[in-house]
Hints:
By secondary structure, the protein is of the alpha+beta class. The chain has three helices and eight strands; from the N terminus they run H-E-E-E-E-E-E-E-H-E-H.
Amino acid sequence: HALLRRDEEDAGDVFLTAPRDWNVSGRYDMIQPALVVRDLARHGAVVRECSWSWKTMGYDATAGELDEVETEPWDGPARRVALVTMRPVFADLADAIRERRPVKLKSTHENVQDILGDDDDDD
């Protein structure tokens, strides 16, 4: 976690840590973000506008993994998906860095029900 501590000091308030329980291995500390971009030409300074976390999406430690978020307009018609499914589009990363803008996000699932399952089967 030494690298994460360095990023936390440099990146400012983008990190989100929260205790979580997982039925497989028990309690653990969830650490977000999934992406911190550094500019090596500028002595490794964090490029905040290209870094991504739940905090940069407007969420904090009270966010639930299944909280619904809306997909981005570039990804077609808007739909509601689980927060935990949102990921940076790494194919967009180079352009985002060049343009100094947030990296595009995409869900790994079509909608929240992909994660929750269909409760109608229990009838």
